[in-house]
Design goal:
The chain is built from 9 helices and 7 strands, in the order E-H-E-E-E-H-E-H-H-E-H-E-H-H-H-H. The protein has 259 residues and is α/β, with parallel strands linked by helices. A 7-stranded mixed beta sheet has the order 2-3-4-1-5-6-7, with helices on both faces. It is elongated, with a radius of gyration of 29 Å. One of its GO terms (molecular function) is GTPase activity.
């Protein structure tokens, strides 16, 4: 059976208690799965990146210190880490150093995204956005401020983390070549199939669109000519090699006329 996704990434949500990690998970579309054996709950969601389906398995561990052993076990197999703090709680932001140290010890080099939760309570802000951006830049992380209540920047933060994880694992080249074509490129391809470079000027289109179509048609025709020329040269070489091998096999010599 065909898979429902192209890539599977394990993501870990870390942060202090009451920073809203469950709020982030509850805002995702897919159904969650609770683990009955520990305090960690995971939820799966699928995002689309350049035509590739990336399935994220997001694990939420409790922020209490007595569950650090659980975090250590789950961080070893994680491909991405989201550090969550509450913008209305300065203490949750100050505790990020402890979580960052724990993650770097057991999952070094894993891509990380810093997320400031509860942006809808910005009038109670205790952590400035510039301060969070400086902290993220210093630790080589992307930075987002999100709001599960308004469904703001949640999907974007997961997409950025997935992009960083795919780039780290060397998969960026694979899904870049198969990216979904833009509507403009699809229209240009359809027009160029039914006309040529010389009849583009007669089309009832704006000059800027005609210029883009001419360049697109020339590029496409050059690529096609290159492919045809290469195919012709390969066929010619193959024909010569076949004739030479036939002469050698049957001991055929060219006749000569003595005048």
């Amino acid at each position: 059976m065909a898979k429902e996704y192209d890539y599977l990434l394990k993501v870990l949500l870390v942060g202090d208690s009451d920073v809203g990690k469950q709020e982030i998970l509850s805002g995702l579309d897919d159904g969650s799965t609770e683990s009955p054996f520990c305090s960690a709950a995971h939820k799966t969601t699928t995002i689309l990146l350049d035509g590739k389906r990336v399935k994220l398995q997001i694990w939420d561990t409790s922020g209490q210190g007595r569950f650090c052993t659980i975090i250590r076990s789950y961080s070893r197999g994680a491909q991405g880490i989201i550090l969550v703090y509450d913008i209305t709680n300065k203490w949750s932001f100050d505790g990020l150093n402890r979580w960052l140290k724990e993650v770097e010890e057991h999952a070094p080099g894993v891509p990380k995204v810093l997320v400031g939760n509860r942006l809808h309570l910005a009038f109670k802000r205790q952590v400035a956005a510039k301060q969070a951006e400086l902290y993220a830049s210093r630790n080589k992380m992307a930075c987002f401020e999100i709001s599960p209540l308004c469904d703001f920047n949640i999907r974007e933060s997961f997409c950025e983390l997935a992009r960083m994880a795919l780039h780290r694992n060397g998969m960026e080249r694979i899904w870049r070549t198969n990216k979904v074509l833009s509507l403009q490129e699809l229209c240009c391809r359809s027009i160029c199939r039914r006309t040529n470079v010389y009849t583009i000027d007669s089309l009832p289109l704006p000059p800027s669109v005609k210029s883009y179509l001419r360049s697109y048609a020339l590029t496409s025709s050059q690529c096609l000519n290159t492919v045809l020329n290469n195919s012709a040269s390969i066929a010619k070489n193959l024909k010569c090699k076949t004739a030479t091998s036939y002469h050698l096999k049957h001991n055929v010599r060219n006749g000569c006329v003595i005048s």
